[in-house]
Specification:
This protein is an alpha/beta fold. The protein has helices at about 40-50, 80-95; strands spanning about 5-15, 25-30, 35, 65-75, 105-110, 115, 120-130. The strands form two sheets. Strands 1, 4, 5, 6 and 7 form a five-stranded mixed β-sheet that branches. Strand 4 (about 65-75), helix 2 (about 80-95) and strand 5 form a beta-alpha-beta unit.
Length: about 140
């Protein structure tokens, strides 16, 4: 006997950017110490993605789910899938789609992969969770 699944799809248009590449060190005058911040490219990408996520997706999901992402990159250069996923999950939390990105909520990234689309780079996110119960 199979259980029905709830599915949410979100497409974020634009070249997916990893969070870890090109971080910058700045001096935090308030705390009088150096601080690591994300690259300008990632900060721009995150801001753009947050604008693309509509209010109907701001559910602050807190039940176990699979967050699968198909990344369509504009080049065939190697890219680190784990770093792409980290950025996407942080964006989903910042946009209030997910309550948190810990392992109690995001239990898997099944189906995630990097693909090629020169003309239309994007991230297609599919969030699957069971209806009416815990996994």
């Amino acid at each position: 006997m199979g259980q029905s699944m709830e599915e949410i799809k979100i497409t974020l248009y634009g070249r997916p950017i990893t969070k870890k590449n090109s971080s910058q060190i700045i001096f935090d005058r308030k705390n009088n110490r150096p601080m690591l911040i994300q690259s300008k490219q990632y900060r721009h990408y995150e801001k753009d993605c947050l604008k693309q996520i509509s209010g109907r997706h701001k559910l602050e999901l807190d039940k176990p789910c699979n967050v699968g992402v198909l990344y369509y990159m504009p080049t065939k250069h190697r890219v680190d899938l784990v770093n792409l996923l980290e950025g996407t999950c942080d964006i989903l939390v910042a946009a209030k789609v997910l309550k948190d990105d810990n392992s109690q909520i995001i239990v898997s990234h099944d189906g995630s992969r990097v693909l090629y689309d020169k003309e239309n780079p994007r991230a297609v996110i599919t969030i699957r969770m069971e209806k009416g119960g815990n996994q």
